[in-house]
Specification:
Blueprint: H1 2-41, E1 53-56, H2 58-66, H3 70-82, E2 89-92, E3 95-98, H4 99-104, H5 106-116, H6 119-132, E4 136-140, E5 145-146, H7 150-153, E6 170-183, E7 186-192, E8 204-210, E9 224-236, E10 241-250
Parallel strand pairs: 4-6, 8-10
Antiparallel strand pairs: 1-10, 2-3, 4-5, 6-7, 6-9, 7-8, 9-10
Helix pairs in contact: 2-5, 3-5, 3-6
Keywords: Membrane, Transmembrane, Transmembrane helix
Transmembrane segments: 12-37
């Protein structure tokens, strides 16, 4: 019996080694895949639309798509949302585009989607594309905090601090806004840094919205919680205003 076991082991031990090595390799591969996924998504905020749309600049949405790294991300978001039919085409509210057409005419796909979809759907695509490309720094004015995500990591200096006026990524600014002025086709909103007793004192975030892009004729009275998606344009030291050029606002 001992001889039989020795003979069996002499024949099969190389295969046993192969099986053990293969199993270990699979475990390592799974571990690496999980680690990579968590490293990529640990800072990712949820991709939902944060409230009702108050303002939307559709031209800025298209400009954003045409410039830089966000075009491919927006095309992918649109394709993921509208889906692909059984015959390999994309159904877009009466417009059928072949898959080949999507690859060569991504701009038209996105443009058609924006023109034919509700603002809430357009905002969802925009936010999803920006988050996919790590292109949004999230700011909470009341708490004076920034969300730790990949976009923020790119702006942190050696001291671990970041100045909002120097951020060149898109920003999503949450705070308590109020109407500052209206006229010449523009409505100006202000929101204070922190939570002062008098919201008109201290530094402010200034958002200038074109009236043509406001979703309602009547803007909210007094202070209201809202989030502005846009890009830092300038710091006006004499007024204490950080000017953000808005793409969209949500309440």
């Amino acid at each position: 019996m001992a001889v039989d076991r020795a003979l069996w082991w002499s024949v099969w031990w190389p295969w046993a080694v192969v099986w053990v090595v293969t199993a270990l390799a699979l475990l390592v591969a799974v571990g690496v895949a999980v680690w990579a996924w968590r490293s990529r998504h640990r800072f990712a905020p949820p991709r939902d639309v944060p409230g009702l749309t108050i303002y939307l600049n559709e031209k800025s949405v298209m400009d954003l798509y045409q410039v830089g790294r966000y075009g491919d991300a927006m095309t992918k978001e649109v394709v993921d949302r509208v889906g692909v039919t059984k015959d390999g085409k994309i159904a877009l509210k009466g417009l059928d585009l072949g898959v080949e057409g999507v690859r060569t005419s991504g701009r038209e796909v996105v443009k058609t989607y924006i023109e034919n979809s509700e603002p809430i759907a357009v905002i969802g695509v925009l936010l999803g594309a920006l988050e996919s490309a790590s292109g949004v720094v999230h700011v909470d004015l009341r708490d004076r905090t920034l969300l730790r995500n990949t976009a923020l990591e790119q702006h942190l200096g050696a001291s671990g601090a970041v100045r909002l006026r120097r951020v060149d990524s898109y920003v999503s600014v949450k705070g308590v806004f109020r109407v500052h002025s209206q006229g010449d086709g523009t409505t100006v909103f202000l929101a204070p840094f922190g939570d002062p007793d008098d919201p008109e004192t201290g530094p402010q975030v200034r958002v200038e919205c074109l009236d043509s892009g406001l979703r309602d004729d009547v803007v909210p009275d007094g202070g209201f919680h809202a989030r502005c998606l846009g890009k830092v344009q300038a710091w006006k030291a004499e007024e204490g205003h950080l000017v953000v050029r808005p793409i969209a606002m949500f309440q």
